[in-house]
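Last lecture ended with a question: if I hand you only a sequence, what can you say about the shape of the protein? Today we answer it with a concrete record. The protein is Helix-turn-helix domain-containing protein. Below, first the input exactly as provided, then the predicted structure, then a couple of comments.
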Amino acid sequence: MRAKTDNPARLDIGLLLYPGAQRAAVHGLTDLFTVANRVAAELGAVELPQIRVSHWQVDEAGLLQWVEDSGSEAATALRVMIIPPSLDSAPHAELLARHRLPLNQLHGRGTVLASVCIGVFFIAASGLLDGRPACTHWNYVQALAQRFPLVRVEANQPLLDDGDIMTSAGLMAWTELGLRLLERFMGATVARETARYLAVEPVAAPLPGALFNPRLDHGDEAVLKVQHWLQGNGGQDADLAAMAACAGLEERTFLRRFRAATGLRPTEYCQQVRVGRACRLLEFTRRNVEQIAWGVGYQDPGAFRKVFQRITGLTPSEYRRRFAVSG
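The predicted structure:
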């Protein structure tokens, strides 16, 4: 089944209003994207989409409801849904449970889920982070790990872009998250000039290997299901037969549709996912290159080194020397 998921002339970004959500972050992000539209217009970037920001909330029945919009009508398809931070303690189980289905439905339609600080608890409670990495405010790292033991909580990362899910750590990390989304969807120049206008720190240049931004808005549900599966398992044990089975398609049909939807062959896509995981392991662990190669699904460390260097421009050892976090 295929469905058109967005208007190419518009980038629809939603903000989730839940009880206790920090209004400063909600309004700040709304203003940040408004400034980005102005910056893009002043730059004459007529080929870029117009950002439209909408606010949403989940009612007592668990239904996602449109609250307000920077346009005249509710967005029909969101490219991104941001779960803002809160000054309160970690959300209680009943509130998280009420948001589980709407977030799963959004994710299943190709919407990127992005969180700030304890907003990650909503995504974790949806089950979408099981077996996957995530970050949050240092004060809630232990609570996140205890409540959701299947989530790989990474305490040292301020922002983690894992393709279809983005998590950020600090209470004020909404500025960095917003700028990262601009860089991803509007380009580095718009992100940099928006930061300059707002007089905030520009988004740090992404490291080699962290540049993979998979297409999720293509509307092919069978291919999107495989993309989510690959992101969830890090691209491991994903041969053609397994991917085609996941999509429910014959192999030749799957190959054709996957490349048409993503612009990549399945093997190329898996390599990007695996190298992205390997980069984080090189940055934040002391495992040797062979262990990392095996950990991301390569039986031959030599083959891993070749793929890694082709994608990042560096050998694994060079990457570690330049970007590893000390201690």
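Comments.
1. The longest helix spans residues 23-42.
2. The chain has two domains: 10-198, 221-323.
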